[in-house]
């Protein structure tokens, strides 16, 4: 039931923002309003749970197949593949991620805490690349944000134009992020 409520909330947040009422969310989830409040005391708690679930999904998918013993370049390439897969494989999740990134519904500190796992992960990879002498000089935080933003925006427009994502497209996106 909790997942149905979170799914409904995510859908309605993208469609209506925070204007979606708790009763509308309950209706979308096909649960009684009382059941919704049994799981979430307030709309803020519910929105926080949506962020946390999305952040957990992001982190889980980005670290999938990672081998900390592998060369940093190999780890970065895996990360890029995983990020592309994360954004491309589920259009609705990608829209939710984009929406929550652009219209923060929680205080910045809460969003930072929720997404710390994925931020720390790319930060560690970039630091390893720097330590290996492979990475240009610059702020690692900016680089991590640039990579994620570039992938999300490129795939958003690719999808908007109704284009398929080819192997050549994936390779080009990764190459642009690597150089």
From TrEMBL:
The keyword Manganese does not apply. GO terms for molecular function: DNA-binding transcription factor activity; transcription cis-regulatory region binding. It comes from the Bacteria. Keywords: DNA-binding, Transcription, Transcription regulation. Residues 1-58 form the HTH tetR-type domain. PROSITE patterns: HTH_TETR_2. Signal peptide: none annotated. The keyword Lyase does not apply. Pfam families: TetR_N (PF00440). Residues 21-40 bind DNA. InterPro entries: Homeodomain-like_sf, HTH-type_TetR-like_transc_reg, HTH_TetR. This is Putative TetR-family transcriptional regulator.
């Amino acid at each position: 039931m909790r997942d149905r409520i979170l799914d409904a909330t995510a859908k309605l947040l993208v469609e209506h923002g925070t204007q979606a009422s708790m009763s509308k969310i309950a209706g979308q989830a096909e649960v009684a309003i009382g059941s919704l409040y049994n799981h979430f005391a307030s709309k803020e708690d519910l929105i926080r749970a949506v962020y946390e679930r999305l952040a957990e999904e992001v982190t889980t998918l980005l670290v999938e197949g990672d081998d900390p013993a592998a060369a940093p370049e190999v780890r970065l390439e895996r990360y890029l593949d995983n990020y592309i897969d994360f954004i491309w494989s589920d259009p609705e999740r990608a829209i939710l991620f984009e929406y929550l990134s652009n219209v923060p519904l929680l205080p910045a500190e809460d969003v930072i805490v929720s997404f710390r796992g994925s931020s720390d992960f790319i930060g560690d990879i970039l630091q390893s690349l720097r330590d290996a002498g492979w990475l240009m000089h610059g702020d690692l935080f900016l680089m991590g944000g640039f990579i994620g933003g570039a992938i999300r925006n490129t795939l958003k427009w690719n999808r908007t134009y109704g284009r398929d994502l080819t192997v050549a497209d994936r390779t080009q996106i990764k190459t642009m992020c690597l150089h």
